[in-house]
Design brief:
247 residues; binds 2-phosphoglycolic acid; TIM Barrel; alpha/beta; 41% helix; 15% strand; 8 strands; single chain
Length: 247
């Protein structure tokens, strides 16, 4: 019932020319993809090029962030409407790097999520604990707080994706074990069932992120509550992202 989604987060990597070359390669290597969905989130500057290159192919595209206002005097910001004009299907919201370096809070995550939904874009809402929070036994409390704040007021008819990304596993080469990831995902699905209903919980895709690689993807995907991946470093090469998507 939940079609796996594997999304690549380019972060601040790749020029327009590099995204064009990558997109041509990925389109080709994922030709005929079925039974799962692939998406990439390049930098804003390369979204128009990505839209041109991926159009009509098996790969969707999305943004790494967006602002909650429709327009206005917000220097440096990009609105949901600007992204939907470029055909973005997804927008990452509340990535831990934005929480850590750019003052993102659960309240602003909530506003961004609503802006995306209002423009017909599916938000990929990121949650996850730091190493210190894990080591002091606060993982579940943190996830609950992020879900409560980030998803506040969400209508059960809305369609979102949630990415569980333990901060200590991002870019560190230290993946959560499949069991650790499954535990967090099972908690998240339970929370969704309790707060948004069984149907919402059963249909919402929960992605794992944090040092996903071609050789750990299969064991993560074998877990009952892991419905895909949000991939940083290993999505930057066509070959390794292809292997992850085709796990
Ligand atoms: P990583 O990043 O795969 O490089 O750990 C994941 C992410 O930040 O989404």
């Amino acid at each position: 019932m939940r079609k796996p989604l594997i999304a690549g987060n380019f972060k601040m990597f790749k020029t327009v020319a590099e995204v064009r070359a990558y997109a041509r390669g990925l389109r080709h290597s994922l030709d005929g993809l079925s039974g799962r969905e692939a998406a990439v989130c390049p930098p804003f500057t390369a979204l128009a090029a990505a839209a041109e290159e991926f159009k009509g192919g098996p790969v969707a595209w999305g943004a790494q962030n967006l602002h909650w206002e429709k327009q206005g005097a917000f220097t440096g910001e990009i609105s949901a409407g600007m992204l939907s004009e470029l055909g973005c299907r997804y927008a990452i919201v509340g990535h831990s790097e934005r929480r850590q370096y750019f003052g993102e809070t659960d309240a602003t995550v909530n506003k961004r999520m609503n802006a995306a939904l209002g423009a017909g874009i599916t938000p990929i809402v990121c949650i996850g604990e730091t190493l210190q929070e894990r080591e002091t036994g606060q993982t579940i409390v943190v996830l609950e707080r992020q879900l409560q704040g980030g998803l506040q007021g969400l209508a059960p008819s809305a369609s979102i994706v949630i990415a569980y990304e333990p901060v200590w596993a991002i870019g560190t080469g230290k993946t959560a074990t499949p069991a650790q990831a499954q535990e967090a995902h099972a908690f998240t699905r339970g929370w969704l069932a309790k707060n948004l209903g069984q149907a919402f919980a059963a249909s919402t895709r929960l992605l794992y992120g944090g040092s996903v690689k071609p050789d750990n993807m299969s064991s993560l995907m074998a877990q009952p509550d892991i419905d895909g991946g949000l991939v940083g470093g290993a999505c930057l090469e066509v070959e390794s992202f292809t292997r992850i998507v085709r796990y």
